[in-house]
Amino acid sequence: MIAGVGTDLCAISRMKRAVENDYFVRRIFVAEEIEYAMSQSEPARHFASAFAAREALSKATGLGIFGMGLSAVWVRRTDSGPIFMLDGETSGKLKSCGADKCWLSLTHEGDFALAFVVLESVG
Fold it and tell me: Is the Cβ–Cβ distance between 26 and 20 less than 8 Å?
């Protein structure tokens, strides 16, 4: 059963300006995300999609971005697609929202990065 759905759109040009500030980057993203984005030809695209993913998850849970914590959730890129990584507290918050699984889809087109999240309850 679906326990929540969220989506977010982030302008890559806006993120490109934001990530010029190292304080912003280190406050929002974890080392794994920074390393991944910086290894790509257009880092801002990947920062934008990771940021949109956090926002989409916050909408799906109803917790809000600050209710989850900015660096308590991050995106890991795997061979089978992007997945969320959660710290222990945030994992507990997800369970309290009735979610057992979290599905994430990311895409980029033109100046936009989009994230779509589905929370699933399997119980």
Answer: no
Cα separation of 109 and 57, whole Å? 20
* CATH ID of 2-120, from 3.90.470.20, 2.30.30.30, 3.10.20.90, 2.60.40.1610: 3.90.470.20
Residue (of 67, 75, 17, 86) closest to 49 by Cα position: 75
Domain residue ranges in the chain: 2-120
Tally Cβ neighbours within 10 Å of residue 97: 15
pTM of the model: 0.92
For the chain, list residues with pLDDT below 50.
none
DSSP string, 30-89: -HHHHHHHHTSSSHHHHHHHHHHHHHHHHHHHTS-HHHH-TTSEEEEEETTEEEEEE-HH
